[in-house]
Design a protein that fits this description.
The chain is α+β, with helices and mostly antiparallel strands and 272 residues long. It folds into 2 domains: 134 residues, Fructose-1,6-Bisphosphatase, Chain A, domain 1 (2-Layer Sandwich); 114 residues, D-Maltodextrin-Binding Protein, domain 2. It is built from 7 helices and 15 strands. It has an 8-stranded mixed β-sheet, with helices on both faces. Strand 9 and strand 10 form a beta hairpin.
């Protein structure tokens, strides 16, 4: 692994330790929007990450969730989510992570997802494979939708306008289940590690997806948008799968977009 991945992993581990310390101390939160939470841990983690990135790579640009864009003078750009899964963190639900990814001339070339609650470091570099705590990881070989376990998420912002409930229901009825754990980068890392067969989500940001989509590809999987078109980091949605399930999942998504439900949506009883 290159210096980039090794440095990113060390920084994510350090940021994870800050998050763990703050978690022990007790967690308060503020609202960025109606349901969009931010905590002291998001800020402390981001502060540390930016300080370290600027020390190691002074010419690189940075795009970080809490502080936005930091200009650079080279073709390199880091995407930083200092705490992915803030709502979980604020409620002491132990599914969250620190994720960093490096883009060179528009292509993601390195990425890490660190889960400080389980001490799990997922890391990938373009062309070198994906790893969990130093061991190579691979996507599953599940070929049938009805044998699969999948995941999705719901954005905190504009949740009321989100169409995902239709997708959630259809896939919940036609797979072993849909998990909704609340941390996009972990969902992607779990597809890479073979803990999930596929994952989809609408309304994400580049820092949620950059490292995780590289992990999935380097673990032998596939990433696209929800229509099956090439994945775009600046697009809002992602479908990540083990490759074998790509066609059946895209086909199912297409049916759902057309309102052609394989399983009829349940009706509310007219009387209690
Ligand atoms: C959120 C999480 C969540 C996803 C949201 C993201 P944050 O990131 O990844 O799983 O459903 O859309 O915004 O705000 O906790 O960093
Ligand atoms: Ca996030
Ligand atoms: Ca975040």
């Amino acid at each position: 692994m290159s210096e980039f991945v090794e440095k990113a992993a060390a920084i994510a581990r350090e940021a994870g330790a800050v998050i763990n310390t703050l978690a022990k101390r007790g967690i308060g939160y503020e609202l960025k929007g109606v349901h969009d939470l931010v905590t002291e841990a998001d800020r402390a983690s981001e502060h540390l990450i930016i300080e370290r990135l600027e020390q190691h790579f002074p010419t690189h640009a940075i795009v970080a969730e809490e502080s936005g864009a930091h200009e650079g003078s080279s073709e390199y750009r880091w995407y930083v989510d200092p705490l992915d899964g803030t709502t979980n963190f604020a409620h002491s639900f132990p599914v969250y992570n620190v994720t960093l990814a490096l883009e060179r001339a528009g292509e993601v070339i390195a990425g890490v997802v660190y889960d400080p609650t389980r001490d799990e470091m997922f890391q990938a570099e373009k062309g070198s494979g994906a790893f969990l705590n130093g061991q190579r990881i691979h996507v599953t070989k599940t070929a049938k939708l009805e044998d699969s376990l999948c995941a999705t998420g719901f954005p905190s912002r504009k949740r009321h306008q989100n169409i995902n409930i239709h997708f959630y229901y259809q896939f919940a009825m036609q797979t072993h289940g849909v998990r909704r754990a609340g941390a996009a980068a972990i969902d992607l890392a779990y597809v890479a590690a073979g803990r999930l067969d596929f994952y989809w989500e609408f309304s994400l940001n580049p820092w949620d997806m950059a490292a995780g989509t590289l992990l999935v590809r380097e673990a032998g999987g596939q990433c696209s948008d929800m229509r099956g078109k090439p994945f775009d980091l600046r697009g809002n949605d992602v479908l990540a799968d083990n490759g074998l399930l790509h066609a059946p999942v895209v086909q199912m998504i297409d049916r759902i977009y057309r309102g052609d439900y394989a399983v009829p949506m349940p009706q509310m009883p007219t009387e209690p």
